[in-house]
Amino acid sequence: TDMRSAVERFFLRRCISRYRFFRQFNEDVMDKLVGVATLWHLQHGDIMYRDGENADSFFVVLSGRVDLHKATGTIDYTQITPLLPTSTLATHEKGGGKKRGGGHDEDEKEGEKRKGRAEAEEGDVSADSPKPLIGLRRGVGMNLKVKVDETKSREVEGYMYFQTLVSGDSFGETGLSGNASREELVTSYGESYICQIYRSSYERILREVMLDIDFYPEQILPVLRMPCDTRSDSDVKGMGDLLRRLKFFSQSDERTRMWISKHATLEECPAGTFLYKQGDVCDSFFTLISGAAAVYSRSKKGGKEKERKEDAASREGRLRRSSFLLATSISSPPPAHRKKSELPAVAEGGEGGEGTEGGEGV
Predict the structure, then answer these.
(1) Residue 68's closest CA among 212, 165, 176?
(2) What gap in Å lies between CA 125 and CA 13, rounded to an integer?
(3) Under 8 Å between Cβ of 172 and 55
(4) Where are the annotated coiled coils located (predicted)?
(5) In the prediction, which pLDDT does 40 show?
(6) Is the Cβ–Cβ distance between 54 and 212 less than 8 Å?
(7) Secondary structure element (H or E) that encloses residue 273, with its range
(8) Are 245 and 215 spatial neighbours (Cβ–Cβ below 8 Å)?
(9) Quick check: helix, strand or coil at residue 80?
(10) What is the pLDDT at residue 349?
(11) Angle between the 254-263 and 233-243 helix axes, to the nearest 10 degrees?
(12) Beta bridge partner(s), residue 61
């Protein structure tokens, strides 16, 4: 992907800039993302990733649809249809299994050779045969429109369908956080084009474009302490400018920052305070202004009862939190409605915590 010409970068950037996820980035970031993005062309039933895999990237649906499925019980993965067929995408062997990621972990030329051999074995090779979309090929990817066939089946043995994503939607965002595993199976519903960006590349790009201006929490706290309906336009604008210096908001557009500046509230927590607990309904997100936090996951107990609760939450259209967030160092006094909790309560069946630095979203 680093070998793309200026013309290839221009056409790919023009293609993906129409999608919601990419509109938040400026031209400099867009150009860098184009340099590391991988395009996938999937057919109906192809698996983008499955639950249990390491989450090392995230995805954007450029065209077509993808379905998300949750496992209904213990699955024999050897009986599931293999991952993306070599006749569609280049694959590489790692640990005895096939995995997507051509152009990131393997030499692209070798991937093309294997693709050619697979097509030759099928006896369906012509000069116009499509190349695997590892990055952008000349004449490929300029027109990503596909026709959706509503009659195709969504059933996957051992899984329960729960959501469909369409053009412009992003998924697999757990790939942006370290040490995470996929929690769902993602399949293509009909033909689709998917853009994949690896976490390592995404974080490197953000580091390269981060503002070199120091952020001081005391600059933003006075506005956050104001009731939302009393903040003036100048307060909101000033806070929006300051938010750009936090990593989580560094590439968000001005409109998003202004909305957050108007509606965000401040949680001032001492060490040992839980901001939320596993099982709470996801109705907000958090960004650390200063200090640090640790995230803990409780090990699964009473599997059947837990499954029923998760299914009920899904049917109600809600997502429930899958971890604890614990503020470990903020000096201001706690609000009255927050209660201190001790770590042993988490340690009971809990699993190790991962630190989160100031400026990161959770």
Answers:
(1) 165
(2) 30
(3) yes
(4) none
(5) 87
(6) no
(7) strand 273-276
(8) yes
(9) coil
(10) 38
(11) 120
(12) 194
| H-assigned helices in 37-153 | 108-122
Domains along the chain with CATH numbers: 6-203 (2.60.120.10), 213-263 (no CATH), 273-356 (no CATH)
State pLDDT tens for residues 262-292. Answer: 888 887 777 777 777 777 777 777 777 666 7
pLDDT of 322 reads 53
- CB atoms inside a 10 Å sphere around CB 5: 10
Going from the C-alpha of 196 to that of each of 35, 55, 80, 237, the distances in angstroms are 12, 12, 23, 34
Q: Which residues pair with residue 160 across a beta bridge? A: 70
Can you list the residues of the chain whose pLDDT is less than 70? 1-9, 11, 15, 20, 24, 73-152, 178, 209-219, 245-248, 250-251, 289-291, 297-362
How far is CA 332 from each of CA 205, 218, 269, 274, 291, rounded to the nearest angstrom? 34, 12, 7, 15, 11
Neighbours of 188 (CB within 10 A): 26
Instruction: Return the ∠ at Cα 54 (arms to 106 and 157), rounded to 5°.
Output: 105
Alpha carbons 341 and 297: distance in angstroms, whole number: 16
Place of tokens 């769902």: 184
Q: What's the residue count for the chain?
A: 362
pLDDT tens, position by position, 215-262: 556 667 788 888 888 888 888 888 887 777 666 676 677 788 888 888
- The single residue listed with the structure tokens 């806070």 is 239
The values of phi and psi at residue 312, to 5°, are -60, -40
In degrees rounded to 5, what are phi and psi of residue 243? Answer: -60, -25
HSE, side-chain direction, 13 A CA sphere, residue 181: 7
Q: What is the pLDDT of residue 223?
A: 82
Q: Which pLDDT belongs to residue 94?
A: 28
CB 343 within 8 A of CB 271: no
